[in-house]
Amino acid sequence: MPARYDVVVVGAGIMGVASAYHLQNENPGKKILVVDRYGGAGQGNTGRSNAMFRNTFSSSDNQVLADSSIDFYLHVQKELKVDVGLQEIGYLWLMNETQLSKSKPFLRRMEGNGIATTLYGKEDLKRLVPGMAAGFADDETKVMGLPPVDGGVFGPKCGRLDPDRLVRFYAGEFARAGGEFAFGSEVKRLMVGPSEPLGIEGEPLVWQETRVEGVSLAGSSQTDVLADMVVLAGGAWLNELLEPIGVDGHVKAKKRQLFSVRAEGSKLERLLHTPGFNQLGLLPLVILPKAGVHFKPVSEEECFWVACEDEMNRPYIDLPEHDLDRYRAERLYYERGIYPVLTSYFPAFRGSKLKAMWAGLYAYNTLDNLPFAFRTGNLIVVGGDSGSGIMKGDALGRAVGALYSEEDEAVLYGGRAYRTSKLGFERRDVEREEWVI
After folding, report:
1. Rounded Cα distance, 29 and 178, in Å
2. Interstrand relation of 285-287 and 293-298 (parallel, antiparallel or unpaired)
3. Do 263 and 304 form a contact (C-beta atoms < 8 A)?
């Protein structure tokens, strides 16, 4: 006989485990199962994440979703005494005059919504950031079209955390509350049937009301799991399960790459430990004015993680491979693309050695660069986090809980109410994000 649950959550990344955690806490009598193809929680794209968080967005929706999630993570680490590796190192955007001018309306909106930022001038940055080049006169930088650094915007309630530790917190609390996991079990398909079976061949027929009956598993389980509610938190793989049943997954994936550069024993060591921005005495995550190149300090590894959010000429992937190791980081992408930009603004990176490199997938909602959460019948879908699943994961988990209980509003951490219909598509009402790295 097929197993039966009240809720089956597909996906044990940050979206899945945060949703399961809140569902189990809010419905302690329910039997809830989380299914994932990997051997443990957070072993897909969540584990390959840059794992940064920020509340500095142009969209008021992104601001409240991220800010409340950050507050919960701070609560977990500071009050519950669970170390999730959270470091408030801050974000520092380096900009030219044009970029600063375009950012001023966003900064005013942030100020009005209680999001703190600090505006730095060029001379402030030259004093605070050792070895930063603010302007250029050589032919190479002219060919690359590198703009000067005329100022910067600093977000203090931003930083990094450890995705594995965060996922383990949610997964552990979910399991302690009675939740179950089925790891190493891949969902082959969603099972669709009639809401009221009549025993007629070919059901469900066009005139019958339909529902998702559960999931059909491959892997170690190789069975069907029936459920009163199915929650899909499949990230980049949503289309694979939704399109066969005629539901739009609203997701397009792109490969993203990370490069670890050794700082120990080089000029980069001084840059890594830059005082003046945070209590840890570390350089913030720095976003350069050109090409989306950015880097962050990883002090425990004595290195920097470097990335670039390339858009044009980076193809979308509608149906990604299951094996993420198929998506490899490209050394030439770093050496010919990122490195010349990075070393022009920060010469200390010249001659630096790559320590490691890896790749993963972003799951974009290309409509407005905001995540979504919607319910259709007994199916809830959450995703489209566009690389910001960590920073909004808790708020989205609470939104899933509200959708399950058919509440109009999700109560985010700290007591802020957020209307769940804003995140759906029938009555979507969100501000498009414009301040994208």
Report:
1. 9
2. antiparallel
3. yes
Tell me the β-bridge partners of 255.
361
Kindly give the pairing relationship between strand 180-183 and strand 32-36.
Answer: parallel
- Mean pLDDT over the full length of the chain: 94
pTM of the model: 0.95
Number of domains in the chain: 2
Same domain, 293 and 275: yes
Report which residue type is found at 31: K
**pLDDT of 136:** 79
Is cis: bond before 244, omega within 30 of 0? no
Q: Which two tokens stand for residue 295?
A: 């880097």
Model confidence over 176-200: pLDDT tens digits? 999 999 999 999 999 999 988 898 9
Q: Give per-residue pLDDT as tens, 87-117.
A: 999 999 999 999 999 999 999 999 999 999 9
Using the 3D structure, point to which of 321, 343, 364 is the last residue of a domain.
364
DSSP secondary structure of 153-182: EEESS-EE--HHHHHHHHHHHHHHTT-EEE
Angle at Cα 366 formed by Cα 235 and Cα 154, nearest 5°?
Answer: 90
Q: Rounded to whole angstroms, how far apart are CA atoms 148 and 134?
A: 5
Inside any domain, residue 433: no
- If asked whether residues 266 and 407 sit together in one domain, one would say no
Residue 283 CB contacts under 8 Å (≥ 6 apart), including other chains: 89, 92, 129, 271, 272, 273, 274, 277, 296, 297
Q: Which domain holds residue 187?
A: 3-51+164-249+367-423
Is residue 227 one of the residues assigned to a domain? yes
